[in-house]
Write a structure and sequence with these properties.
about 20% strand, 6-stranded mixed β-sheet, 19 strands
């Protein structure tokens, strides 16, 4: 089958604690500057140090956090579109923003979706597709946009990335978890003791290479690969073996024609938390140490200077990776003094470090086990000279394989809290447990076959973006100056897929998407098909939940690649978009 059209970056923008300009921020990063400052809080925290964007000014409070999230996203998305020469009301444009909690755990009375408000203020009429896979959300937004372009013959324009703001609830939550450093973020340093929270936004415009050439767009780089995998290990801690980080990298390289020896630049997640750093350092050393004939790959990161911007970090670091490839050097790792032993790859300390090659990866590791790798190439495009090679208009790829259903189930409960009875002691939002139950029921006719290789099973969750039951509880607790670390860790929107991965031991790709139900059905079908057809998974567990009053319904279907005779796309679409009938609902 065809590998699919090349996907290129034609516009970029970011908003960071060091400013907004691409070159302005890049030069400051290379000079060793930092945006970390003392940011007072009305609450007692592990540290008050944080990296805050200069505008809009930080103000603790629920409504203020929501306003800042919208303003930051609008400003950065508009800048990326200007950079690409694309109008916000272009009919070919789809918005794919990512975030972690955004401002939902600071608002006792949640406003409308921040991304919907941002799209409206931007002048875009369609509802965005919002990715909520914790710290990997910004990177997963780019992965999703790339998959949709390749499944749609390279037509359309996607604005993908992430935005996240600093809020008091996030500061309280990470302080309670003990993830924040009281002394400063020192990624890959022997003295590392935690991360520094930050905020920001990053967005990239993605197009098919032929379509971009046809409209005369400038190309920054090719997004030549994207891969993901779930740890299935814990709610907050990574799998210490690093096997799923390795799988994410290998899936990004697969089909790109590249191998580890071609990678010259590694933009690491680099949170400064000991376990994350050690897992990531060991993994990149194992994958990239000693595989290049020339100078070793260089490892850099931005969090020491920009803080950890959670759902935005994957997009900000994607921009940084492209700039590193274009500029031919990377900035120093802020705070690095004594590197971890055993890491022989180049780590810039005193100043910028020269790069040798056109290919680089960006890694993100998120709560809920979400690991994502993006592969960029700044080299010249080859064989993209014919402007008529792709017809105008959108459409699905004729080479795409149909889908078949291996099992499905729909469960309805009057009270989602009932789903947590007799569950393990760690906390997860009740809706996440309902989705696990629906997945268990859907697996009844095919469990042994599907779970024979958990590394090849993907999990996809779609929903309409409503706040989870636990979010209101956290908002109320945060207003009183406290947040339970268990509830905080177990209520990130990514948990809706992460808990199924953890409970069933599934380590394939995973993603959580908030969208209009009709759009979600189309997008999920395309993404599931992409994972199956591109060899990223053998099975996909796709689940969705719907709230109706106090009760809640979860539907799950197990998909595999099919034949024209058993194509089930229309059946699956009705399963997720039509209201459940009495005889279709099973009650646990």
């Amino acid at each position: 089958m065809s590998a699919g059209p090349e996907v290129v970056v034609t516009g970029m923008a970011w908003a960071t604690p060091l400013g907004d300009g691409l070159q302005e921020v890049w030069q400051q990063l290379c000079s060793g500057a930092t945006g970390v400052v003392d940011q007072p809080s009305p609450h007692r925290l592990r540290t008050e140090r944080a990296a805050v964007v200069p505008s809009p000014a930080y103000r603790p409070g629920g409504r203020e956090a929501w306003d800042r999230q919208v303003a930051l996203a609008v400003r950065t998305m508009a800048a990326a579109l200007r950079d690409a020469g694309v109008a916000a009301d272009d009919g070919r444009l789809t918005l794919v923003p990512g975030t972690s909690f955004d401002a939902r755990i600071d608002c006792e009375d949640p406003q409308e979706g921040w991304a919907v408000a941002a799209a409206r203020q931007l002048g875009h009429r369609r509802r965005p597709l919002v990715v909520t896979t914790a710290c990997s959300a910004g990177a997963d937004s780019l992965l999703l946009a790339r998959a949709l372009l390749r499944e749609g013959d390279g037509e359309g324009i996607f604005l993908a990335g992430g935005a996240d703001v600093l809020t008091e609830a996030k500061r309280l939550g990470h302080s309670a978890l003990g993830t924040m450093s009281p002394t400063g973020l020192r990624a890959f340093d022997v003295a590392h003791d935690g991360m520094t929270l930050g905020e920001g936004a990053g967005f990239l415009v993605l197009e098919g290479a032929v379509a971009a050439r046809r409209r005369g767009a400038r190309v920054y780089a090719t997004l030549s690969g994207a891969g993901s995998a779930n740890d299935a290990s814990g709610l907050t801690a990574p799998d210490p073996s690093g096997r799923t980080v390795t799988a994410a990298v290998q899936r990004a390289l697969a089909g790109s024609g590249s191998g580890p020896g071609d990678v010259a630049v590694i933009c690491a997640h680099g949170t400064g938390t000991p376990l994350n750093d050690e897992v990531e350092a060991a993994t990149v050393q194992r994958l990239f140490g000693g595989v290049r004939t020339g100078p070793a790959a260089v490892v850099f990161g931005t969090k020491g200077a920009l803080g950890h911007s959670l759902g935005a970090t994957g997009a900000i670091e994607a921009v940084a990776t492209v700039l590193a490839l274009q500029e031919g050097h990377v900035p120093p790792l802020h705070g690095l003094s004594s590197p971890l032993p055993g890491l022989s790859l180049r780590l810039p300390r005193a100043g910028p470090e020269k790069t040798h090659g056109t290919q680089g990866i960006s890694l993100t590791l998120g709560f809920g086990g979400f690991n994502t790798c993006l592969l960029f190439d700044s080299g010249p495009l080859v064989g993209i000279d014919a402007p008529t090679a792709v017809p105008s208009g959108s459409g699905s790829r004729t080479s795409a394989l149909p889908l078949a259903v291996a099992g499905h189930a729909t469960l309805s409960v009057a009270d989602p809290a009932s789903c947590t009875r007799n569950k393990p002691s760690f906390y997860a939002d009740p809706i996440a447990w309902l989705i696990v139950s629906a997945a268990e029921e859907a697996l009844v006719p095919c469990r042994e076959e599907v779970l024979a290789d958990p590394d090849e099973v993907a999990v996809l969750l779609t929903n309409d973006g409503r706040a989870l039951p636990t979010h209101l509880r956290i908002a109320r607790d945060a207003a009183r100056g406290r947040v339970s670390p268990l509830r905080f860790a177990g209520s990130n929107p990514g948990i809706l897929a992460g808990l199924t991965c953890l409970t069933l031991g599934l380590r394939g790709p995973s993603l959580v998407l908030e969208a209009d139900p009709d759009d979600a059905a189309d997008v999920a079908t395309a993404l599931a098909g992409h994972w199956l057809h591109a060899g990223r998974a053998r099975y996909v567990l796709w689940a969705a939940y719907r709230q109706h009053g106090a009760s809640c319904t979860a539907t799950c279907v197990v998909l595999r690649a099919g034949t024209p005779d058993d194509d089930a796309a229309e059946f699956v679409r009705k399963l997720f978009t039509d209201p459940p009938t009495a005889d279709a609902v099973q009650r646990p």
